[in-house]
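Module 6 notes. Inverse folding takes a fixed backbone as the condition and produces residue identities as the prediction. Think of it as a translation problem where the source language is geometry and the target language is the twenty amino acids. Below is one complete input and output pair. Work through it position by position during the lab.
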């Protein structure tokens, strides 16, 4: 479904609309086969040219691409190509087949009077594409999908091959389930049918033994339920874990719309999954599979709201507490769940407390996972800050939260230093760039923290808060690349912290020999801000006023603090101002 392919398909439609006979070129072939095939056609006499056979066309289909198509087939795409390209993720565009081309192609290949080798057709996996089209929101796409199945059924009836009875039984099983004209089948059910069709072409498959009796013994399929959920999830077979894994993969891949979630809810699917997760019978592999299913569900807004009402956040909170640092894959999948949930969660206050619980657990995970988690935290904090809800707008980050963030922050800086040592200076490292992105997100989160630096708090708490603040500042100034954050948000926050510090401890610490490097970095940022104006719009200009006021404040306090009043740093401050 690349842009070029879509344009070519639209061009074919324009030919057909303008009464140009394309039958001489049908069925169409593509790729390298098309180059050789149509060049022969041009060079040969018409009566000597041989049309592509069903086998020729089926050989062009790539099994991996079929598998990707049934997972990401655009459910809202119309059947008729148009001049406006159908937008989809660029990384998927070249990995899936365009059903607007494939379904008419199958209708042509299976038309009455054509020679169809049914064995080749089912072995090629293309039947999976027809089944998945039945879950489209577009009636014309579904109608063509049902039409292709009806044509294939006619060929099956007159065919002679060993597995004929199985396939007739399978299609009868679906036909008997259709109660109305051209119904939309939930994506989970159509994916179930597609995967069963693939399994029936491999009698040695592990799932064949349990799925064949289900199809052969029942006259019809209830398309408003998750097929065989209880038998597969709570089975008594020796291979019950294999069956459960297959079912969980089906749920993970099939949950794409609110209709899919609705049929799961009718069967109490998520009640069963969440209970099984915390039971002693659940393996780590099953836990990861359940979390992936949950991740698919919370991407659907209505599903996320329903699960939230049923206590999903409390369940996630308990799971985080019980998760061990060694459960790397479980923690990684948990991060994916909360990232997806962050888009649709109604309660950001409770959600943010859960994110803070997860922060100390991700210290040893990969950079991409950490980045996704802290990005979700930053978005949630921003939503609460701008919320009309008084409870959310008054949310404050605790000192303990900052200490947890600080530990993960430090571990990432160590990773960055290791990365630099392992690569040449002129070599660009992708991981290093991601670490730098993470460090900036950490810095942006830190300015939501309001350290308590008042006179009336215990001295021990004051020192603890002051030490945390200075440590955070030290890490912020280790970020190599500058952004608007350094010239706008940071000076406002630092100025606010200094003003609330009635004991002037922050200034005194910054002027000490141990922390003088941080103050030097502040002066450098102030001087750099003069060169940044041209980079940003008027509304985003560097907030030099706050740097100026902060440095004047430092100068005032240091002048009164006679022990260092004649230090070199004062001259630097004065020169900068």
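Target side of the pair, the amino acids:
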């Amino acid at each position: 479904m690349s842009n070029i392919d879509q344009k070519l398909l639209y061009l074919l439609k324009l030919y057909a609309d303008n009464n140009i006979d394309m039958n001489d070129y049908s069925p169409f072939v593509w790729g390298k086969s098309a180059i050789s095939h149509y060049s022969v056609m041009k060079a040969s006499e018409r009566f000597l040219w041989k049309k592509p056979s069903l086998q020729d066309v089926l050989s062009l289909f790539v099994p991996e691409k079929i598998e990707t198509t049934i997972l990401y087939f655009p459910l809202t795409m119309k059947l008729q190509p148009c001049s406006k390209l159908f937008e989809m993720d660029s990384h998927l565009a070249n990995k899936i087949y365009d059903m607007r081309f494939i379904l008419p192609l199958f209708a042509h290949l299976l038309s009455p009077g054509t020679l169809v080798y049914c064995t080749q057709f089912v072995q090629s996996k293309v039947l999976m594409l027809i089944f998945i089209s039945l879950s489209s929101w577009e009636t014309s796409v579904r109608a063509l999908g049902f039409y292709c199945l009806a044509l294939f059924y006619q060929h099956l009836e007159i065919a002679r091959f060993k597995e004929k009875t199985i396939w007739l039984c399978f299609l009868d099983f679906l036909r008997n389930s259709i109660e109305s004209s051209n119904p939309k089948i939930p994506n989970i059910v159509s994916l179930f049918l597609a995967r069963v069709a693939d399994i029936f072409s491999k009698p040695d498959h592990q799932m064949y033994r349990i799925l064949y009796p289900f199809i052969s013994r029942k006259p019809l399929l209830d398309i408003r339920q998750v097929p065989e959920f209880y038998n597969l999830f709570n089975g008594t077979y020796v291979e019950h874990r294999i069956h459960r894994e297959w079912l969980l993969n089906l749920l993970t891949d099939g949950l794409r719309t609110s209709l899919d979630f609705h049929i799961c809810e009718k069967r109490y699917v998520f009640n069963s999954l969440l209970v099984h997760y915390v039971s002693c019978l659940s393996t780590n592999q099953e836990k990861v599979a359940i979390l992936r299913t949950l991740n698919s569900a919370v991407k659907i807004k209505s599903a996320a709201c329903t699960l939230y009402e049923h206590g999903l956040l409390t369940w996630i909170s308990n799971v985080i507490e019980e998760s061990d640092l060694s459960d790397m894959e479980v923690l990684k999948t948990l991060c994916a769940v909360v990232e997806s949930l962050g888009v649709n969660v109604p309660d950001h206050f409770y959600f943010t407390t859960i994110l803070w619980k997860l922060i100390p657990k991700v210290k040893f995970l990969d950079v991409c996972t950490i980045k996704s988690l802290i990005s979700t935290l930053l978005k949630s904090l921003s939503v609460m800050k701008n919320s009309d809800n008084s409870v959310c707008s008054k949310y404050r980050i605790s000192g303990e939260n900052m200490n947890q963030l600080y530990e993960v922050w430090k571990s990432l800086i160590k990773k960055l230093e290791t990365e630099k040592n392992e690569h040449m200076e002129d070599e660009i490292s992708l991981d290093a760039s991601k670490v730098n992105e993470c460090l900036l997100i950490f810095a942006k989160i830190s300015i939501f923290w309001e350290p308590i630096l008042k006179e009336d708090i215990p001295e021990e708490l004051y020192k603890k808060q002051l030490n945390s603040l200075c440590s955070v500042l030290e890490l912020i100034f280790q970020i190599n690349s500058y952004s608007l954050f350094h010239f706008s948000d940071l000076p406002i926050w630092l100025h606010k912290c200094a003003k609330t510090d009635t004991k002037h401890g922050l200034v005194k610490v910054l002027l000490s020999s141990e922390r003088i490097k941080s103050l030097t970095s502040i002066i450098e940022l102030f001087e750099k801000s003069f060169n940044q104006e041209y980079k940003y719009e008027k509304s985003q200009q560097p907030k030099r006023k706050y740097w100026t006021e902060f440095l004047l404040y430092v100068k005032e306090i240091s002048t009164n603090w006679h022990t260092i009043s004649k230090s070199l740093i004062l001259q630097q401050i004065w020169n900068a101002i």
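Reference fact for the lab report: The mean pLDDT is 84.
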